[in-house]
């Protein structure tokens, strides 16, 4: 049969249907650190100027097209569980895509799981927070095992003999994903298993039992029988686990292998079918006499594991601030390249209002996160220690809870293409609620704030002293702080009002930080939009007079 010639005038005409114009291009090959003025200023301000060159190098690395693609692949090709091998042996093995392992390798070799513990110095937490913030913008899921490995150290140190044995393996800057006992590895990761079916927030309802193998007590071996309904990163080499010992709820370190080289009896039943956080395997497990060692005092398990939880809550602040930053970057990048009705979107007054508002949210989140990082660096100072106790749950509540709406609004800036799976926005959007729910959901954070205020009135004084630093800088903040102070000293209906109180605390400390450290355009618009008595709006309802071009330009002035 005769085939028509490939290039007849007619087919040429049909092939040239249109020219692709007025579209953005992929946001890649840029330096995430150099492009972020607020981050660079914050790092210097909070005591980590010494990390600037390293952060520059890291920002360039993680902003490369190839590195950003790892984040896509780790989520597209999701982890799979094999409970048994083909011969019928129980293996409880989760297999990950190479992209996930590549992300883990970078994170661990960069010290995101350990740097403040092995190289403590002023600004160590700030430098690590900044690097985690850059890293998390690329991919959030692998941050879960990195965070847990980082956070376990303060809890483990409550049991010095176990810490001496495990800490060198935990803090090694080597990612070793092999499925072999910890002692054979060049570096290990550690997870956390508290949540059971009948109660996650209320861990005192845990039903998993711990039976002493010998005499029992701190540092001694037990066998654990029960279940854990959420265990993320089940390929971690060990887990901190809560279980009921004869003397009450206690904390245990449970390795995945027993000292004799046999598999420990922690069985992975299935992987969770999560809406987001897809690269990170989260599992349901049963413990069938799993060997574990008690960490800290018997019956004081919550007190012990809270040391770990406090750190993971801080990392939720970092992760959600990072999500906000990537959402801002995607939205501003798109709007600077796309025109509608005769002008670039970024120059349309209403879009400017939306973008500026998204930037303000993110600047407030980052300022509070970096301030808390500095407080983490100075826990020996009483004021800083009290601030950590109160302002971390405040920040965890507020920043994580603002992120889903922020992600959605950034998605809308991109329009229909922002909804498509080959855009980063759906991933950011699905990731956004998770930090708010795990490590203590919203209400639990607010109740924790009340508990801290009740048990340590000095923490309220420390918080108010922090706000005083900005006294007189903006009348709206002065009025806000005065009203907050009155309401904090009113104990009636405290639980009922807790969200309102915590929200106002968060806004107060963010405003105080921005007034001291951000340009006037940012702090002024923040105060006028967020402290106004009119209440809350959707993003993009900044009042008249906000210098939106300046706010947006600051967020996107230097792409490195
Ligand atoms: C992706 C993902 C991964 C996870 N990974 C892990 C893991 O690795 N290890 C682990 O241990 N857990 C993990 N979790 C579990 C998580 O920590 C719990 O889901 C969370 O603590 C809430 O517990 P719950 O689901 O039982 O909800 P519940 O405790 O039943 O809480 C439901 C709601 O009630 C609210 N609430 C609770 N008490 C009160 C109160 N007194 N007053 C008002 N409101 C209240 C909570 O804030 C929440 O909004 C993970 C969860 C997710 C989503």
Short description:
By secondary structure, this protein is an alpha+beta fold. The protein contains 20 helices and 11 strands.
Largest sheet: 7 strands, mixed
β-sheet strand percentage: 5-15%
Shape: globular
Bound molecules: flavin-adenine dinucleotide
Tally the helices.
20
Computed structural class: alpha+beta
Oligomer description: single chain
| pLDDT averaged over residues | 95
Poorly predicted runs of 5 or more residues: none
Considering DSSP H and I runs of 4 or more, what fraction of the residues is helical? 40-55%
Provide the gyration radius in Å: 25 Å
What's the SSE blueprint?
Layout: H1 9-15, H2 37-45, H3 52-62, H4 65-76, E1 80-84, E2 90-95, H5 98-109, H6 115-118, H7 124-138, H8 143-156, H9 160-170, E3 190-193, E4 209-212, E5 221-232, E6 238-245, E7 248-255, E8 266-271, E9 282-295, H10 301-337, E10 339-340, E11 343-344, H11 349-377, H12 382-414, H13 425-431, H14 434-437, H15 442-455, H16 457-468, H17 475-488, H18 498-517, H19 520-530, H20 548-555
Parallel strand pairs: 3-6
Antiparallel strand pairs: 1-2, 4-5, 5-9, 6-7, 7-9, 8-9, 10-11
Flavin-adenine dinucleotide binds next to strand 3, strand 5, helix 14 and helix 15.
